[in-house]
Predict the structure.
Amino acid sequence: MKTLNKTRPVSLEKIMVFVAVFLPLLGVLVAMIRMWGWGITRVELSNLILFYIITGLGGITVGYHRLFTHNSFKTYPTIRLLLGIAGGMALNGSLFEWCFRHRKHHVHSDTEGDDHSPHLQGKGFWNSLRGLWHSHTGWIFSVGKPEERYAIQRLRNDPISVFLDRHFVSWIILSALLPTLFGWVLTSFSWEGAVLGLLWGFFVRVCLVHHITWSINSICHLWGTRPFATGDHSRNNLLCAIFAFGEGWHNNHHKWQWSAKQGLFWWQIDPSWWFICLLKKLGLVWDVKAPTREEIAKVMAGVRVEKHAV
Ligand SMILES: [Zn+2]
Ligand SMILES: [Zn+2]
């Protein structure tokens, strides 16, 4: 009886996760059919782009990842709150679950204990495909919550972080409500504008942010360059960097986890870093951490020596 009682809430949670993953995909299908017949208006496109940037750049990369998980800069409580809400609106999990799991990823990177490594499913073609699926989406259905030992005490002690985590469902509702309102207002209060706002600004956008974020777990541990020796399979991937606002410089990130800057060279585009620099110019963030040119050059020199030695 005890086992039955324990499994019930987990099953409900799994159903909710299943809906959160596959409903946006269904939304994309509906949007494609609609676009085939009626095209796409400027309002729908701007709705999609605006909320993609708010939740992808502001929420996941600058907020959940660089600020809350890695503490790579400091900012005012209001900015923390806004970035955290934007992160919740991405439907990538609650603040604590996301940050603790990401910490776990860095602790175990590509070894036993890493929840979404593509390299732990065995050798051979089919196992590689299984690894790709697992790292991209499959892990969401097969792993539980990150264990307590991966908790970040700094976040547990922060009232804003606790508030953000506790009210995750509210941010999901807000995530659907805001684009609907945006579409409704910009089409002179038409119900069709509201529905299309929900379709493009919520369903399609959530699907895009999901798969781009998950690509960092899958693609950036499979394909790309490895300028730094990190002891794992993390890679730099230009396409992921473009669509994930600089997060595609993942090998750089595994080497310099505490850095707010992931595009370390002038040609490595990093819009999240640019946004942090803008906030710094406005006096809204401070104590921004990034490796100096000398530090990078030293490590690069070390890598070259290692390569020659091999
Ligand atoms: Zn990684
Ligand atoms: Zn990280």
